[in-house]
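Query structure, 310 tokens:
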């Protein structure tokens, strides 16, 4: 039907065939088969010109309307390809979600209103093969090799304390000084009482034995305890950047990193390798965080301002 309509519009088999990207003989065969299936001649053919039969005129009117509707449908489908649909299931650490993902979700929803979002807030390593997640955010040095991964931001583990704690107990100047302070311990570490700190120059890591009466298997309570002046904590920069900027926490041993080589990664299973909704969400997170994550930039600018005041 499309071939027939294009032949009528071009008044030439050769010109119509060129437009359709087929040979003239193929175009002629298409129209011949159409006439055979309809049981009616549609075109008068001569060596000089083509003309429509009475049946051909009526049939062409129907073909023109159908082709117009087909082209409109194709344009509509092309537009909807830009609209993400379905459900995106993501596993995210609670602190990352609360501080950095949730504030951006309204913008992501505005861009992709037809995509449903489902977030599972957990620090555990989820099993993609059994739990049906599309992707996860993980804090690690090395993502599992069987997963597809994208590095979102470097992870700096910072030593921090509230100004009130430091007024009462003094300020540690070296990693060794931490041994004399009340420390807030992350119980998922192989040895929570040992803090490893890599110096600013990238030299040998120092291992410091610390003590403390409070432990947690998630970092959110450690963060709250530190804010209330109940001890010194090692917390990721994404958790404390705003607190340092607002002077609620003091960044101690600046430049020393307790998680050298670690980063925040987006990971997803191989069967989701080409998932457009995963790629779009990952690119959105990269856009929001920035090339230098805004929380690390806040720490750097705060340190520079303090240095300028001295």
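Result returned for the query:
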């Amino acid at each position: 039907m499309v071939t027939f309509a294009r032949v009528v519009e071009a008044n030439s088999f050769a010109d119509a065939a060129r437009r359709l990207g087929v040979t003239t003989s193929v175009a002629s065969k298409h129209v011949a088969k159409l006439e055979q299936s309809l049981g009616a001649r549609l075109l008068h053919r001569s060596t000089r010109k083509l003309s429509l039969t009475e049946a051909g005129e009526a049939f062409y009117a129907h073909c023109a309307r159908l082709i117009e509707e087909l082209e409109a449908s194709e344009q509509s489908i092309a537009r909807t390809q830009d609209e993400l649909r379905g459900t995106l299931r993501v596993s995210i650490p609670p602190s990352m979600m609360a501080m950095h993902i949730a504030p951006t979700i309204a913008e992501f929803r505005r861009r992709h209103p037809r995509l449903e979002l489902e977030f599972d807030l957990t620090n555990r390593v989820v099993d993609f093969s059994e739990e049906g997640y599309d992707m996860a955010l993980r804090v690690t040095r090395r993502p599992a090799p069987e997963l597809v991964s994208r590095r979102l931001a470097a992870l700096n583990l910072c030593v921090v304390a509230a100004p009130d704690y430091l007024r009462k107990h003094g300020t540690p100047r070296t990693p060794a000084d931490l041994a004399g302070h009340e420390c807030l311990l992350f119980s998922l570490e192989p040895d929570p009482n040992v803090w490893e700190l890599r110096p600013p120059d990238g030299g040998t890591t120092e291992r410091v034995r610390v003590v403390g009466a409070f432990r947690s298997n998630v970092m959110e309570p450690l963060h709250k305890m530190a804010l209330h002046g109940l001890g010194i904590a090692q917390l990721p920069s994404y958790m404390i950047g705003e607190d340092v900027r607002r002077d609620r926490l003091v960044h101690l041993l600046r430049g020393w990193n307790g998680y050298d080589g670690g980063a925040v990664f987006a990971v997803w299973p191989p069967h989701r390798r080409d998932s457009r909704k995963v790629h779009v969400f990952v690119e959105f997170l990269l856009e929001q965080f920035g090339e230098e994550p805004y929380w690390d930039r806040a720490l750097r600018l705060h340190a520079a301002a303090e240095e300028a005041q001295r």
